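re: ur question from the group chat, yeah i did fold both. here u go
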Amino acid sequence: MFISNAYAADAAAPGLTSFLPFIIIFVLFWFMLIRPQMKQAKDHRNMLAALQKGDEVATTGGLVGRVVKVSEAYVSLEIATDTVVNVQKITVQTLLPKGTIKAI
C-alpha cells in the first residue's frame, strides 16, 4: 500500500577490492606508527649498548648525572659530588652532550 518493498542489495564478489581499504589502512599504520617506533627502540638499544664511563645522561625519572660504572643491567650515576645512585640501565633516556652538567 503506502510502504514499498525493500530488497537486499546484490552481494559483492569477495576479492581484492573488498580488502583494499584494510590493506591501505595497514600500510598507513605501518609507515606512520609501527616503523618509526621500531626505529626509535633500535636507536635506544644502541645508545644503551654504547654507554661508557664518563658519559652524561638523563633518566626517565629526571635524574641527570655522570656514568661512573656500567654493568649488564644497572648503571651507577654520580648525581652530585660523592653521591652515587644505581639505576636500571633501561631507565637511561638520553645521552647528553659533554659539559651539560656543568652548564646546569
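okk and heres the other one u asked abt
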Amino acid sequence: MDTEVLAKVIPDKIIDARGTACPGPLLEAKKGIGTVKVGQIIEVKSNDVGSRKDISAWAGKIGHEFLGIIQADGHDRLFVCRKK
C-alpha cells in the first residue's frame, strides 16, 4: 500500500510493542490480531528492526494481509489486516 494512503488508515487496534526485542513485537501482533474482526486492521508500533521482516512474513504465512510500514519518530508502524 502506498505510504500516503497508509498514513490515512485508522487502525481498529494499536499495539505498542516499542521497547521489546524480537520476538516480542511478533508475539504481540499474534495476540492482537485475535482481538479484531475479519477485515479490521491492527497497527504494531515497534522499534525492533527485525519486526519489519517477522510481522510481514507471519502475516503472509497465516493468510492475513500485510499492508505496509510507516517509519515514525524512532519506531516503525506496521499495519496488518485480518483476513480470517
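fwiw on the second one: The mean pLDDT is 96. The first strand starts at residue 13 and ends at 16. idk if thats what u expected
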